Amino acid sequence: MKRQAIDDLSLTVDAYLQWMASEQYSPHTIELYQWILKHWVAFANGSNMVLSDLFTYETLKAFESESRLKSVKLTPLRGLARYLYENDQLDEPVKNPREALPGIYEEYLTHYENTRNVTQGMIRTCRNILLGFHQYLNTDHLSTLTIDQIDTFLNHYNTGYSPKSQRTHRGCLRGLLQYLYYQRSILQRDLSAFLTGPPFYAQAKPPRFLRPEEVEHIFSSLCWEKPSDIRCNAMIYLAYTLGLRPKEISLISLKDISFAQKKIRLPDRKNTVPLRLPLPDDVIKAIVVYVTHARPQVKHRALFVTLTAPYRPISYYTVSHDISACLHKAGISESAYCLRHTYAQNLLEAGASIFQLKEMLGHDRIQTTQRYIHVHTQLMRKGLFDETL
Q1: Among 208, 203, 204, which Cα is nearest to 342's?
Q2: What are phi and psi of 351, to 5 degrees?
Q3: What is the pTM of this model?
Q4: Is the dihedral of CA 175, 178, 183, 187 positive or negative?
Q5: Which residue of 97, 279, 341, 363 is 20 to 30 Å from 47, comparing CA positions?
Q6: Distance between CA atoms of 94 and 79, rounded to whole angstroms?
Q7: Counting beta carbons within 10 angstroms of the beta carbon of residue 341, is it exposed (0 to 12), middle (13 to 18) or buried (19 or more)?
Q8: pLDDT tens track for 288-313
Q9: If you average pLDDT over residues 248-275, what whole number do you get?
Q10: CATH ID of 103-200, from 3.40.1400.10, 1.10.260.40, 2.40.10.270, 1.10.150.130
Q11: Which letter, b or e, does each residue of 275-308 get, where b requires 16 or more Cβ atoms within 10 Å of its Cβ?
């Protein structure tokens, strides 16, 4: 840790507040931060700590406990820590403590993060499940693990969770079992094949796609007045024209787009296979309008960023929410994924094979792609009834 004196702590706070103003934080937020940080400076000057020791989870909780302020919030202190970290005055921002797992679990989490395109939230979820599993087994020896032990743990752990969360928990353990068998040779057999849950009947429901008149209605009803609408419109064009997932849209950076070549590069896909696609003119126009009229002029290289300070790349949840809200406004009660499903239908009707469809959609399993065949109603009618379409 850098052992910097805290004599100039007030100057550091002033610089942080000036940075907030330059990033267009609201005056009310800056005033609140200034009020809390003023009391924190007094606490810090009386602690005789070096700067690095002040920004620990334990110290911040001590300030929260000792402060006489009502409902003191630690957000300003965490924000200041991030500011100092980004300016090389701290080695790391404030981190919440987490219980360490035995080596094999930590190694699997590293493997999971490096080989799968997953969010940090999913990593935390997986860590929590593995922590519960380890505490249930109460042993580091996994070579004698049985499917009965796993089922008993899941029956207890999944109590009160939704079916979707239960599938997530099974998936995390299934990945661990595959790692223990294939990568580490700790298990004598692949137990993941036995880790199944009740049938998920919702999967029998075919993907929802839009009819041509619905697509025409959506695009004709787009509003181009507010920055939030312009940003959402660009995302809708990407979802419909290229079949991108909300997460893939959120990960697009400015360097991934070549306006001169009219192409886009998609390096982060679920199947880990990068893809380069042509950009139709209408998609390019939507992106250009967004970049020139709605996107804040910020240092972030992500294509889609928040429209208010603090500026940062938007999450895939924001992409999904905004597109779905736009569809609902147009009278289409569907999620953002219906645009992706419609893209798949268009590919099938253009004569694409299921293997081409798999690569274009970025699926990691052919079984997932096969679901789209069942909703290709025009080809189904032609094949079953020999209709002229």
Answers
A1: 208
A2: 100, 10
A3: 0.58
A4: positive
A5: 97
A6: 9
A7: buried
A8: 999 999 999 888 899 999 998 888 89
A9: 85
A10: 1.10.150.130
A11: bebebeeebbebbebbbeebbeebeeebbbbbee
Find, among 99, 122, 100, 98, the residue nearest to 112 by Cα.
122
| Axis-axis angle for helices 163-178, 147-157 (nearest 10) | 150
Q: Residue 204 burial (CB < 10 Å; 0-12/13-18/19+)?
A: exposed
Spatial distance between the Cα atoms of 369 and 356, rounded to a whole number of angstroms: 10
Q: Are 214 and 262 in contact (CB under 8 A)?
A: no
State the burial class of residue 249 (Cβ atoms within 10 Å of its Cβ: 0-12, 13-18, 19+).
buried
Would you identify the CATH topology of the domain 212-383?
Answer: hpI Integrase; Chain A (1.10.443)
CB-CB neighbours of 60 under 10 Å: 19
* Residue 87 pLDDT greater than 90, yes or no: no
Q: Is there a contact between 248 and 269 (Cβ–Cβ < 8 Å)?
A: yes
Give the CA distances from residue 292 to residues 297, 312, 317, in Å, rounded to whole numbers and listed in that order: 9, 18, 24
Burial 369-386 (b: 16+ CB within 10 A, else e): bebbeebbeeeeeeeeee
Nearest CA among 10, 219, 220, 271 for reference residue 115: 271
pLDDT for 384 equals 42
Question: Is the separation of the CB atoms in 360 and 274 below 8 Å?
Answer: no
